[in-house]
Amino acid sequence: MRNYCKVILLFLSFLITNTYSQKKTSEEIATLITSYKADIRGPYERINWFCKDGSRRNSKDPCPDEENGGLQHASFKSSVLKLRETNNLYFTEILAGLNIESFLDEKENFSRLKQYQLSKYLASINNGWILQKAQFYRGAIQSEDEENWGKSFYENILKNEALVNSNFYLIRQSLKDIPHNGDSNLGQLMRSESKILAEVYPSFMEIRIKIHGNPQRTDIGLVKEFLQKNDAKLKTETKKSFDKMLLTMEQFYAPLDFKKLNDIAGKIKSNKKIVTELQNYFSNYKNLDSPKNILIETASILSSIRFTVSQKILASDKLILLDLSNLLETNAIIESENWETETLQETVDKLETLTCAAFGTGLLELWEFNEIENQFNTLKSKQEITVDELNNLLTLGRNIVEWSSSLIKANYYETVIKYTAFEPLAYGFTDDRIRNSIALNLGKTVSKLGEFVTKKSNLKNAVFNLQDVSAMRGLNPGYAFGQLVVIDGNPDDVEVNSNNIYVFLKPPIDLKPVAGIMTVSEGNLVSHVQLLARNLGIPNAALSNDNLKKLKEFNGKKVFYAVSNKGNVILKLEENMTKEEKLLFEKQVRNTNMIEVPIENIRLDVTKVVNMRTVNATDSGRLCGPKAANLGELKQLFPNQVVEGLIIPFGVFKEHMNLPMPNENKTYWQYLTDTFVEATKKRDENKSETEVETFMLKSLEKLHTSILKIELKQSFITDLKSNFKTAFKSDIGKVPVFLRSDTNMEDLKEFTGAGLNLTLFNILEEQKIIEGIKRVWASAYTERSFKWRQKYLLNPENVYPSILIIPSVDVDYSGVLITKGINLGTDTDLTVAVSKGAGGAVDGQSAETRLITANGNILLAPARQSDYNRLPITGGTKKYFTSFDAPILNELNMNDIRVLAKNIREKIGEKSTENDVNQVYDVEFGFKNNKLWLFQIRPFVENKRAKSSEYLNSIAPKTVTNKKINMSEKLN
Length: 972
Fold this sequence. Notes:
Blueprint: H1 2-21, H2 26-38, E1 44-51, E2 56-58, E3 70-76, H3 78-87, H4 100-104, H5 111-125, H6 143-157, H7 161-166, H8 168-174, H9 186-200, H10 205-213, H11 219-229, H12 236-253, H13 258-265, H14 272-284, H15 291-309, H16 315-338, H17 344-360, H18 366-380, E4 384-386, H19 387-420, H20 428-435, H21 439-457, E5 462-463, E6 473-476, E7 478-487, E8 501-504, E9 516-519, H22 528-536, E10 540-542, H23 545-551, E11 558-563, E12 569-573, H24 579-583, E13 610-611, H25 626-637, E14 646-648, H26 650-657, E15 660-661, E16 666-667, H27 668-684, H28 689-708, H29 714-728, E17 737-743, E18 759-763, H30 766-778, H31 783-792, E19 801-807, E20 813-818, E21 830-836, E22 848-852, E23 857-861, E24 867-870, E25 878-881, H32 891-908, E26 921-928, E27 931-939, H33 944-948, H34 950-955, E28 964-966
Parallel strand pairs: 5-12, 7-8, 8-9, 9-10
Antiparallel strand pairs: 1-2, 1-3, 4-28, 6-10, 7-11, 11-12, 13-14, 14-19, 15-16, 17-18, 17-19, 20-21, 20-26, 21-22, 22-23, 24-25, 26-27
GO molecular function: ATP binding; kinase activity
Protein name: Phosphoenolpyruvate synthase
Domain Pyruvate phosphate dikinase AMP/ATP-binding: 623-950
């Protein structure tokens, strides 16, 4: 009996331990947060002494003096500590006594540091957040100990030169949140206080919007006027809150104490040059007679500070310089609002100055700044420019805004999305950082320039009745009618409807068919989502974060949306559509723009594994899909740059589909064909398309599940193992491989099919390869794959998957090449997008994108993806993090890409039919130790109907591109 009880106790102990170690759900975390808010001790357990020998004592039992004492502060509840173990969540940290490396959390992309900043933000906008009742819990936090720790933290990490240079923005931002010098983040505090007051008094909302969107010193007068008008209505406590906010505003807009700053600069010991620069700036400041001159000098000194911090100087000096930089940034933000430009030249000057300030404050990396500066330099000597050059200038301005704001998002996106799942207020953090940066006025300056360009180019966006929509730009032409759905948050869990028009902050990787899309972060021009939209004539445009927020007003409305082939955007309510626009949607004929998968030449008699060396492009759609056929062609043309490969042809798939399907009294193939026959019957009976689709999806889900469980024929497995050893010189299970779905529906002249089916990365174990084959086959019958096919194919039942098996190459970086300029450049140029690690650019990563010409290249966008995957020899993927302080592609790489494109055009072009001699190609590639590897080539398919649409041509502006504009011309 005793032993039985012991077993029970051990089992219960295991259950309790296992329960505590399980990851908490978002709902459970939200419940905990609610409980902390209502608790007078919040997340804290009690006050303790934390001694230097590692022991903990009660608050009335101090650490012994002979041990040099210890620190007194609150200890955390067990539930808070468990969240650290199970969910890697750190709420409301107490810094004193923390291990510096643990808090920095570099291995997890500085997650713990970023969570500290986010917690500070939440506390500022939500009355203490989880400390709502505990923020005045006496003794919980000792401010002096926090500041001492903060100073020690910075003097420690600032010694690491590489860390500072690769994460300059993050470290500089953290100084606004981590106590180390009696400092405070006044800009954030001002916005937080105004937000809270606007929630209490909705009539204050207009002023709050002004403070958030266009902050100026005159806002103090607006707040005082509001107080005077509403004095009788306001409670005493509310008046105190307004007085507190006014004090914050006065401090934010107060003139800098240059004598004090001069003394601080004088403490710098290891670089006298920057001391001289700073002291000259401080002493000459009073002679600067305009916001323009103040901003120019401030931007210059901010840049000098950044250059100096990147050098070998004392960590204590770096800390002084970074603190000064944050103070001067506030000054730059204020003066940028005060500088009102009148002429085109002055606007260009302001844009260049703000770009310099953006670099100085960490929003741009040095190499990015140099790329931009080179483009500004071409304008400086000109007295007049053409309309074409003016549009290029606007594109440059939009790029600067996007690169700056996207750097902020890239630093915090992962942390913000993690917190938003259980605390929706967290979502505003990134926007708050943007508004407390030079990026805010960069956006306004570009918007003003955009209005001027609109007039001169006759290129105007017509988006409801909204102002400031010049930031919108078309990515590919098309038109759509449907319900507008605005997704201001994580899109990955959104269930899209093919009849709707979606506005995303960032497009989801596995986007199902939609009528139209707009995105703030376009990812890159050659991601699968962008290529599908381009191929299928789905209107697609980029817009600003502010544009997205304004469109929320129209969420749920039926709208007409069009993008012309010159990139202007139209968005209007249904009732405002013209007769011509209504006629575009009057007839919904199923055959329109639909195509048929050719199957007359398909070879289902080949039921053995095929070596990729034996196939070429002519086998595409017959023996296997185009990935394998074209890669086999590439293997013959570029033997040293293409890996070996095996192909599981269509015939092997069909052979297995002819096996009996469990519990159906028919084969898998008969079940599939019967499903489509039944769907046709339902349509003939005038069943709704929604009802037909529901039936299809339910049937295909059953087929998908059954294929995952299909028993592969032993003869096939034996054949696979034999070929594996022959091709890869090793037994199956010893070499990690990719399994790539390769159907006969891909790369048709009118339909790309990019990214619709499954690719399995770096599979090593034999059983996982066997199961992976079934998973790839089954992926042809997922909801997403079916919906795209059903929407555009006349015979989606005749889709046959083959599988391409290639050994993994653990590339340093990878991407996509399109052998023409997309949206910019000519047909002889190259568009390239590349990201760190494997699978670069295809999944919509914010990739480094370049237009590569015969003699140079233009940076279209720098990478803004902080995480990437590598392919270890043990199989699977391993996640790493990167910074943005250096470009991904080097000159050697770009020259290799030029040579590759030339060879593709010559070697593959000469084999093409007469109609395809000008065929553009989409090539997936990677670099390992600067060696170029080729993984895929396919035709680049664009929607010709969208480009030639009579309506889209009619809304495109008629522009005289060589018309000259004087740089001294006034904007208004």
